[in-house]
Amino acid sequence: MRYAVAIILLFICGPSMAKHRHKHHHRSSHHHSVAHRSHHSRHHSAVVQHSKPKVLTEEDILSQQFEAQKGNLRLPVERVVAKEIPVAKYHIQYHPVPGISINCHSGSCVRAVYDGVVSKIFSVDDNENKVVILQHGNYFTVYNGVTQTAVKTGDKITANQEIGTVAANDDGEPSLNFQIWKAGPKKAERTKLDPEVWIIKQY
Known about the structure:
By secondary structure, the chain is α+β, with helices and mostly antiparallel strands. It is built from 3 helices and 10 strands. The chain is globular.
């Protein structure tokens, strides 16, 4: 096609003009070709960059694994007290806000419901009884009413690992308050979840 265009220009404009126009057309075509390749390269690069899969962090993976346990977590204590007239099913007291208090025998062991890291251990109102918080990615489990703690802040733990012993509540009865929280997208944002839908129905 470029040869045909050059012939037509030769007859219309003469040899010198045809030669000039042919070179200009060639340079223009070459420039267009380079620009097209450059645009295609940038487009291809953008597509590749856009389709690059997200690299999951250890926290992301642990969050997904914890979520998969919904409805299958075991209670964090052993030997739940059986009463002739239980306060609530599974002998667990349900509070107006999501969270459960589990009545059990004195000396019952408190165990982690899943793999995680000890986030915090602290006392409330200078009480000897401790609150132990475990982090499971973006999730947190709270064990309120623990004595003789067997872990420390920063420890990596596994499911069913002992973290302490159940302490006595204000009424002098061995009882553990258990909660589950989820971290939000904003820093310090937390959502309190209902443990009942996370615990396996076996008690």
